[in-house]
C-alpha cells in the first residue's frame, strides 16, 4: 500500500497564518494604568489635612480627598465633552 500524504488545507487568501496568538495591549490602557499608579503614589504621599475653598464651600480635610475628587471630576468632564464632540461629528 503506497498512500500519499494528504496536504494541509490551504488558508483563504489574505488571512495570516495562526501560529501563535500575540496579546496586544492598547496604548491607552498602558497610559491609564500608569496614571492611576502615579495618582496612588501622590495620594499616599499627601495625606495631610488642608483648608480649601471652592465657590461657596470652605472646608478642611485630607488632601487625598481633594485629589481624588478633582481626578474623578476631571474624568467625568472629559467623558462629557467627548460625548458632545462625538455627537457633533455624527450630525455632520
Q: What would a concise description of this structure say?
A:
Helix content is 52%, strand content 13%.
Describe this structure in words.
The protein is an alpha+beta fold and 92 residues long. It has one domain. The protein has helices at residues 27-45, 63-91; strands at residues 49-54, 57-62. Strands 1-2 form a two-stranded antiparallel sheet. It starts with 26 loop residues before the first helix and ends with a helix. The model has no long low-confidence stretch (mean pLDDT 81).
Q: Could you name the key traits of this structure?
A:
alpha+beta, 2 helices, 13% strand, elongated
- Kindly report how far apart the N and C termini lie: 71 Å
Q: Could you tell me the radius of gyration in angstroms?
A: 27 Å
Number of helices: 2
What is the number of independent domains? 1
* Secondary-structure-derived class: alpha+beta
Question: Main β-sheet, in a few words?
Answer: 2 strands, antiparallel
| Shape descriptor | elongated
Strand content: 5-15%
Spans where pLDDT lies below 50 across 5 or more residues:
none
Order of helices and strands: HEEH
pLDDT averaged over residues: 81
What's the β-strand tally? 2
Q: Strand order of the main beta sheet, please?
A: 1-2
Which range best describes the helical content: under 10%, 10-25%, 25-40%, 40-55%, 55-70% or over 70%? 40-55%
Amino acid at each position: 500500500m503506497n498512500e500519499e500524504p494528504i496536504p494541509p488545507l490551504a488558508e483563504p487568501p489574505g488571512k495570516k497564518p495562526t501560529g501563535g496568538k500575540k496579546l496586544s495591549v492598547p496604548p491607552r490602557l498602558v497610559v491609564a494604568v500608569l496614571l492611576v499608579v502615579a495618582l496612588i503614589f501622590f495620594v499616599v504621599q499627601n495625606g495631610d489635612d488642608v483648608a480649601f475653598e471652592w465657590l461657596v464651600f470652605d472646608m478642611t480635610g485630607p488632601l487625598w480627598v481633594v485629589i481624588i475628587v478633582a481626578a474623578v471630576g476631571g474624568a467625568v468632564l472629559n467623558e462629557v465633552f467627548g460625548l458632545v464632540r462625538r455627537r457633533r461629528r455624527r450630525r455632520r
